[in-house]
Write a structure and sequence with these properties.
By secondary structure, this protein is an alpha/beta fold. The chain folds into 2 domains: 222 residues, Spore Coat Polysaccharide Biosynthesis Protein SpsA, Chain A; 157 residues, 60s Ribosomal Protein L30, Chain: A (2-Layer Sandwich), CATH 3.30.1330.50. Helices cover 30% and strands 29% of the residues. The strands form 5 sheets. A 7-stranded mixed β-sheet has the order 5-4-1-6-10-7-11, with helices on both faces.
Length: 388
């Protein structure tokens, strides 16, 4: 396999973006744009190393951005984009390991380059001395003069150039040396001016260049677009004891010297879990769905409430990933009934038993549960919704 090095150009000032930081050091979900661009190439099997061209005035920012990556000493950039590219190539030419066969030149302000685009550019260098990732223009193009349209531009055959732009190393180095100072805006233009055939390679619409704050917002959205929407909800409930001979906990009748007082069957654990599921999808609480003022809910089996909450999750296209219930009381003892409780919850929620946890604890005789005046329960539910 030909040797290949990625040359990341990060020497710009980012004046068009505005703000205090040069755009290549702005954070995208916790990582600077530059680091995200570097990581995309470091993790690619066809790329043997990464060299960065930077602005020495940004040294502190650079060091923080690449901490722990073990990169070679960065190359000071030039006054123009073309000059910065050439200086990076000259450093690679002087490498003790020898110049690479291929070089991929990439803008640090394109943090979302994908592995497929990199692979396609590298593969194209087997048939051409240069290749550029690009996206075909599909919008109608208008020429503008003084704020008004001055005609429609034929879009046929037009492409939007991206990076990486790949080259056989010796060819692009020679072209840069010969055309130094020509003021060209990208390395593919240097190759074209030198007479090198440049292959067009399908890029990605998501491989955006961050130039304005709107671009950065879009990058944030794109970065999260493929991630699952994982939600967690928490519920808590309390019911006091009343005269009786048993309590309902997690849909299981547990013999006891008292019952729990409540408008329904007073299953404190199911009420907490219902609130947890409703909270995970931001759908209010149990009282907003089943008002205690309505007589029809008097004495009702609380699994009705829990099933309703689970159906709301599924109606959103979601799935219940895990539930965890903790019952807080001195008595009755929950341990002997835990397997039955977990099985009942799995049945009602229509999930695997391994996704259900039921626990119990005491308050060491403290508080109303310690005085055996009632039972409390807390629950946590994790649901997974479709990607936003």
């Amino acid at each position: 396999m030909p040797s290949c090095i990625a040359l990341i150009v990060a020497a710009g000032s980012g004046e068009r973006f505005g703000g205090e930081l040069p755009k290549q050091y702005l954070s995208l979900d916790g990582q600077p744009l530059l680091r995200r661009a570097i990581e995309a190439f470091r993790g690619h099997p066809a790329v043997g190393g990464v060299q960065v061209v930077y602005q020495p005035a940004h040294r502190d920012l650079y060091d923080r951005a690449v901490a722990g990556l073990g990169l070679p000493e960065p190359v000071p950039g030039g006054a123009t984009r073309q000059e910065s590219g050439r200086l990076g190539l000259e450093r690679l030419a002087e490498s003790p390991a020898g110049a690479p066969d291929y070089v991929l030149i990439h803008d640090a302000a394109r943090p979302l380059v994908d592995a497929g685009t990199i692979s396609r550019v590298v593969a194209a260098l087997e048939r051409a001395p240069a290749a550029v990732a690009a996206v075909q223009v599909i919008d109608t193009l208008k020429k503008g003069v003084d704020g008004f349209t001055a005609g429609t531009v034929d879009r046929s055959g037009l492409w939007r150039a991206q990076t990486p732009q790949g080259f056989r190393f010796s060819s692009i180095l020679e072209a840069h040396r010969r055309l130094a100072g020509a003021g060209l805006t990208d390395d593919a233009a240097v190759a074209e001016a030198a007479g090198l055939p440049v292959a067009l390679v399908p890029g990605s619409p998501d491989n955006i260049k961050v130039t304005t704050p709107i671009d950065l917002e879009r990058a944030h959205r794109l970065l999260g677009a493929g991630l699952p929407d994982i939600r967690t909800g928490m519920g808590f409930d309390v019911h006091r004891f009343a005269p009786g001979d048993g309590v309902m906990l997690c849909g299981v009748e547990v013999p006891h010297t008292h019952r729990l007082e409540g408008h329904s069957d007073a299953d404190v654990a199911l009420h907490a879990l219902t609130d947890a599921l409703l909270g995970a999808i931001a759908a209010g609480d149990i009282g907003s769905h089943f008002p205690p003022s309505e007589p029809k809910w008097r004495g009702v089996d609380s699994t009705v409430f829990l099933r309703h909450a689970a159906e709301l999750v599924r109606a959103r296209g979601g799935a219940i990933n895990h539930v965890d219930v903790t019952i807080i009381c001195e008595r009755p003892k929950v341990g002997p009934h835990r397997p039955a409780m977990a099985a009942r919850l799995a049945e009602v929620l229509e999930i695997e038993p391994g996704r259900v946890s039921v626990k119990a604890t005491t308050t060491e005789k403290l508080g109303f549960t310690g005085r055996e005046e009632g039972i409390a329960a807390q629950a946590i539910a994790t649901v997974v919704l479709p990607c936003p």
